[in-house]
Amino acid sequence: MRVTIRIRADEAETEQLESHIKRRLGFALARISDELTSVLIRLDDLNGPRGGIDKRCHVLLRGPKIGEVVVEETDVSLGPAIDRALSLAGRSVVRALDRARRDRGSRLHVRSQRRTPDALPPM
Questions:
Q1: Is residue 66 part of a domain?
Q2: What is the spatial distance between Cα 26 and Cα 89, in angstroms, rounded to a whole number?
Q3: What pLDDT score does 102 carry?
Q4: Residue 58: CB partners within 8 Å, gap ≥ 6?
Q5: Rounded to whole angstroms, what are the CA distances from 83 to 73, 94, 98?
Q6: How far apart are CA 22 and CA 82, in angstroms?
Q7: How many domains does the chain have?
Q8: Residue 63 is part of a domain; what is its CATH number?
């Protein structure tokens, strides 16, 4: 799994943020990391120095079974936005994988019940 982190916010503690993100990624995606090919995390400060609820964490996850999953959280500071976005991203990927397994299983189940006219019992 390739992880890309882009910080476009005016933050002095870039290394601390990256360390925090990698740690939270480990918690959120530990069970499902084999299902992912790439993770892009983008941090933005929407209003600049004006303040307010303007720190955004955008997470894009890609994998062969899930396609793309996008999660975005906004908060007053980046820490809580990162924590919530990565937690939600992990849950979203698990749901997408469950859907993929359920859909694949139901299609296989339907196919196995089909009968050709030759296979029907005599009347």
A1: yes
A2: 12
A3: 87
A4: 40, 41, 42, 43, 44, 70, 71, 72, 85
A5: 9, 17, 23
A6: 11
A7: 1
A8: 3.30.160.100
